[in-house]
Amino acid sequence: MDWQVILTLFGSFALFLFIGIPVSFSIGLSSLITIGMALPLETTITVVAQRMAAGMDNFALLAIPFFILAGNIMNQGGIAARLIDLAKVLGGRLPGSLAHVNIMANMMFGSISGSAVASAAAVGGTMAPMQKKEGYDETYSASVNITSCPTGLLIPPSNTLIVFSLVSGGTSIAALFLAGYVPGIIMGLSLMTVAGIIAKRRGYPVAPKPSLAEVWETTLRALPSLMLVVIIMGGIIGGVFTATEASAIAVVYTFVLAVLVYREVPFTALPRIVLESAVTTSIVLLLVGASMGMSWAMANADIPYMIADALMEVSENPLVILLIINIILLIVGIFMDMTPAVLIFTPIFLPVALDMGVDPVHFGIMMTFNLAIGICTPPVGSALFIGCSVANVAIDKVIKPLLPFYAALIVALLAVAYIPGLSLWLPSLVLGY
């Protein structure tokens, strides 16, 4: 009966996705069918409705709509151009300097906007013409942008880490935010290493050395944008405000910066930005609510424990089990977006990881890293489509140039997975975690 429940739950979910039903509805329908195997229809509907309501009745979730709104304001507030100028100053002397500028700008803009897709569009849309003018191969430029745009998802503030905190039972958001810095930087450096090697072999140009006056002026122009991260993280770590309160402060700060200071966002554009943010928020919260019904169905059928036993039958070596989990998450990331993947697979794999002595903060960073790779891989990676679109290259032309960058990301992922200190060092240092 237990395996029948597993097949029903995941089989129906896969079927609904295959025929084109949205993810949130696929989750809800598969949960209804699975729970209905053991309970009357009226009781099943009541249970799923109660779980959805309870899942969304969480104060921490208020941070998501505010961070989404702040990110949308930032996306249209002239931030990308200023961060690109700063990245030119920081990485302009490296081989293939514009590729390094692209990566660093994505790291900074992605962390501020909280969206890999927005980063790929904003930074890639600006960098692609510049790299083409300097003689860079278009597929190389697109590959750099596609693989680097998810780096900001690890560097806080990150909505994915907030969702993980909720699903994992209240893992410290402050610790998760701090834990994302080193892995996010490692992710970016691994891509810069590959980009630099390729650029050196192809003889791509190096930017001229900027003057001190240019460095100072560029830094001052970008500093207000970067201060958002400083204010948010400083307030959370210092106990001045919670992550939820920080998200509201982020909205106020981005409004003042983009509307009143930079004046890149007119007042007439604000209703449209708010509406877009509300639509995005509704999608995320519907996913959260629907996934709570699926989590209840899995817990009621002891699915996490059955999967843990199955993994233990393969091997009792924690290193092997961790490798299997990583492989499964990489495959999941290829076919599923980050938020539903976190909501569905955290209740399955986190108990296994905890039994092996893996810290939940470390596991959350590892899982986010895995799924971040997935959004830039075919066949359904959203960052892949956007990156190819802004670079005006066909997807089939960019697959081969992407391979060395994928290899670098896998190496960085394994380092983060098997060296917990990379994730836990900063939370331990700052918070005594």
Can you characterise this structure?
The chain is mainly alpha-helical. It is built from 21 helices and no strands. The chain has helices at residues 2-18, 23-35, 41-56, 63-75, 79-91, 97-113, 116-133, 138-148, 159-167, 173-179, 181-202, 212-237, 243-261, 270-300, 303-314, 318-335, 338-355, 360-374, 382-391, 395-418, 421-431.
Residue runs with pLDDT of under 50 for 5 or more positions: none
Please, what is the average pLDDT? 84
Instruction: Summarize the biggest pleated sheet.
Output: none
Q: What fraction strand?
A: under 5%
- How many strands in all? 0
> What is the terminal-to-terminal distance?
42 Å
Radius of gyration: 22 Å
Count, helices: 21
Order of helices and strands: HHHHHHHHHHHHHHHHHHHHH
- Structural classification: mainly alpha
Indicate the overall shape: globular
Quaternary structure? single chain
What fraction, in percent, of the residue positions are helical? over 70%
